[in-house]
């Protein structure tokens, strides 16, 4: 007997029929002799519909009241799923976030979990019941309802798995697992059998739609064994764990890409301490996320540095606005670029992997505008026009092509 | 400065525009210098839609999970209404039943309130905030979410008014107040300026759609001053209080009626102790509500008695099923009858009121099949065919006709 946490996203419970399928799936797991704690998201478009209703009344609704509103979505799902399980003759009991013992910091819309007190879940488990927990929500010490923000239901599942010491945390979604690259671009993308937490994190742009990076980090920190699999078939899925088996001899596990990347360069900045902090502090204050930052040395007391953002015009405006405090010669920018990354734990022990990447890209007649590396990842910022060709060439070069074509359908779960 | 509890039913907040109107109304009350605690029902058809969703998954859903599901309706309303109030530049804070301190017995679907601990409401009031509370819901001592059943939001409002010692509890609905009879039948029905709790209770069939009897009882017990008024206009409404002013010289305050009444008579029952208990115990066990019960004496050790129900065939079947234990000669029944009642605290001191009623009814050529009286009410069960004429004649006879015709529109609030 194992203890499973099973998380089902919004599209997996998007209508009555899907809800019934999920209920059967849970009952089958119990039939195999396992204990089941289920985490469920709001059904299909419920969250968007609630947001629309709110916007009609108040375009800037208070965060506290938005949390009150949004948490009803998961509460509806959990109650309906419990009813569907009862219909199959099993006892199920649903818990809201606060009932399940999720204690969070006193922040609305993006609260972090401080503690989980799973007494009620454990009591119900010991009575042989199936537990259904509302994802994405908790309560502050003052009894205020909070939500976890994006990736909240994944995080609920992983944190709960850690708290109750579950054997496995299964993330059910509408794709079969994590792929070597986006199957919509490369038809022969391979489904990965396993992947390490770090690789998964570096592949965020590939995997974020099915498994939120925050949940992966939580899983890594608490050594929770994750399985990403489809709620629509019984295929095996992808195991995310501490160290993927090295026996596979895989150097590169996956190829990720971000579209909508802009490069901004600040040229001729006088090299005084605190310059970088000043620039990126100003950007952070405006809520602009910076991805890659590259500085390539100092010449005559002046430095050039470049970084990437998704919001080109806003970022340039911020840089121009601080010219008074931060003298520089020139700011240049280039929009509509893409970032391509190869990720693999095997890169650490295999020299020349990055060189091969540059070679493959240049053979596609594409010039590389920026490079950034980590121990298990190499990213290149390139022109966006030839993206598909570049990814296909890299996918083949690193032996990732599957023998069979993969079909991935349906909308992505969002939470 | 007075402390108001303002309750808005489902049709009063049925769409964005209505929600905004309610928000303005609350802000106006605050502008007049008052403190406002608002109780709100689920929007329009939300409750029915949730029930429909549940039925698709489980025709007999567990009551606990139904409570989990149903309480989301009020939670959505309260959050949206708070947002609408914020949009008008005021601070509003919403509370679910458990946050508002409603402690109930551990029963699902029809829990009774055991206690209210309004600490959080009082703290927020002292900060000058408008409080919005979800109607119809509470929590057991074990942290289980419960609902109050029909009339739940009215009861929430009244119980809260008692707990925080509010000056007035206003029940906003889609009619102007309590009428002397159903304005859909008698066009010149009068809106009552005031009415006593007892009269209101006896007029249940008239008033139940706008103010649930359970809430009236609660108000009576706790001496909560109630006002029933429209959320669509500023008319004064009807005050429900301990003793309506006697100066008005009103003998009969209102005329109520129930359609779909059946009379069942059990003839020749041997008059042994416990006979009545046996009959009505058996009916209660089948969930059949009995209204009037009349027994008119014993003859030769045998008694005849009659009672009214709404479910004729089922009641007859129950009586026939207990013939083994309870020997009787014959059971007869008559369906499609109506009950007409005149209600008024003034009846106590005015003899002849009932006689006048019988006279008016017989002048309409209608025969009276059963009579039942209380101190402030006389009811007659009659044939249903001439109902409208009988009510109009009684309305005129007791000087209830208004000078102007009344318009009442819109669907009735259900909670």
TrEMBL record, chains A, B:
Q: Which reaction does it catalyse?
A: L-aspartate + ATP = 4-phospho-L-aspartate + ADP
Top-level enzyme category? transferase
Catalytic activity, EC: 2.7.2.4
Pathway(s) per entry: Amino-acid biosynthesis; L-lysine biosynthesis via DAP pathway; (S)-tetrahydrodipicolinate from L-aspartate: step 1/4; Amino-acid biosynthesis; L-threonine biosynthesis; L-threonine from L-aspartate: step 1/5; Amino-acid biosynthesis; L-methionine biosynthesis via de novo pathway; L-homoserine from L-aspartate: step 1/3
Sorted alphabetically, which keywords does the UniProt record give?
Amino-acid biosynthesis, ATP-binding, Diaminopimelate biosynthesis, Kinase, Lysine biosynthesis, Nucleotide-binding, Transferase
Q: Which Pfam families match?
A: AA_kinase, ACT, ACT_9
Q: Name one GO molecular function term.
A: kinase activity
Tell me the CDD domains matching this sequence: AAK_AKii-LysC-BS, ACT_AK-LysC-DapG-like_2, ACT_AKii-LysC-BS-like_1
Identify the residues that the record assigns to the ACT domain, covering every copy: 264-343
Q: Matching SUPFAM superfamilies, A to Z?
A: ACT-like, Carbamate kinase-like
Q: Could you list the residue ranges forming a coiled coil in this record?
A: none
Give the highest taxon in the source lineage: Bacteria
Q: What does this protein do?
A: Catalyzes the phosphorylation of the beta-carboxyl group of aspartic acid with ATP to yield 4-phospho-L-aspartate, which is involved in the branched biosynthetic pathway leading to the biosynthesis of amino acids threonine, isoleucine and methionine.
Name the family. Answer: Belongs to the aspartokinase family.
Q: Which protein are we looking at?
A: Aspartokinase
- Which species does this protein come from? Paenibacillus macquariensis
């Amino acid at each position: 007997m194992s203890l499973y946490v099973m998380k089902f996203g919004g599209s997996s419970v998007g209508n009555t029929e899907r809800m019934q399928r999920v209920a059967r799936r849970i009952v089958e797991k119990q039939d195999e002799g396992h204990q089941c704690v289920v985490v469920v998201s709001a059904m299909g478009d419920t969250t968007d519909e609630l947001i629309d209703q709110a916007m009609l009344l108040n375009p800037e609704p208070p965060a506290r009241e938005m949390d009150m509103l949004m948490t009803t979505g998961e509460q509806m799902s959990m109650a309906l799923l419990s009813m569907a399980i009862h219909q199959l003759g099993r006892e199920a009991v649903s818990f809201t976030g606060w009932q399940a013992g999720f204690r969070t910091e006193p922040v609305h819309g993006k609260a972090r979990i401080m503690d989980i007190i799973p007494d009620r879940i454990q009591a119900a488990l010991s009575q042989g019941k199936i537990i259904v927990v509302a994802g994405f929500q908790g309560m502050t010490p003052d009894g205020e309802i909070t939500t976890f923000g994006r990736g909240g239901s994944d995080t609920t599942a992983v944190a709960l798995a850690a708290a109750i010491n579950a054997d496995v945390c299964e993330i059910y979604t509408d794709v079969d697992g994590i792929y070597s690259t986006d199957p919509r671009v490369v038809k022969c993308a391979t489904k990965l059998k396993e992947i390490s937490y770090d690789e998964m994190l570096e592949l965020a742009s590939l995997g974020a739609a099915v498994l939120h990076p925050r949940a992966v980090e939580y899983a890594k920190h608490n050594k929770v064994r994750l399985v990403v699999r489809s709620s629509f078939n019984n295929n095996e899925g992808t195991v995310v764990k501490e160290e993927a088996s090295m026996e596979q001899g895989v150097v590169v596990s996956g190829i990720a890409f971000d579209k909508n990347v802009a490069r901004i360069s600040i040229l001729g900045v006088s090299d005084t301490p605190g310059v970088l902090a000043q620039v990126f502090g100003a950007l952070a204050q405006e809520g602009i996320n910076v991805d890659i930052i590259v500085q390539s040395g100092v010449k005559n007391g002046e430095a050039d540095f470049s970084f990437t953002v998704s919001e080109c015009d806003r970022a340039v405006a911020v840089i121009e606005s601080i010219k008074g405090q931060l003298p520089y010669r020139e700011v240049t920018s280039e929009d509509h670029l893409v970032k391509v990354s190869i990720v693999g734990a095997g890169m650490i022990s295999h020299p020349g992997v990055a060189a091969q990447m540059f070679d493959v890209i240049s053979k596609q007649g594409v010039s590389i505008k920026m490079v950034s590396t980590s121990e298990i990842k190499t990213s290149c910022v390139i022109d966006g026009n030839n993206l598909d060709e570049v990814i296909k060439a890299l996918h083949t070069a690193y032996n990732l092509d599957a023998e069979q074509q993969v079909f991935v359908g349906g909308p992505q779960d969002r939470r």
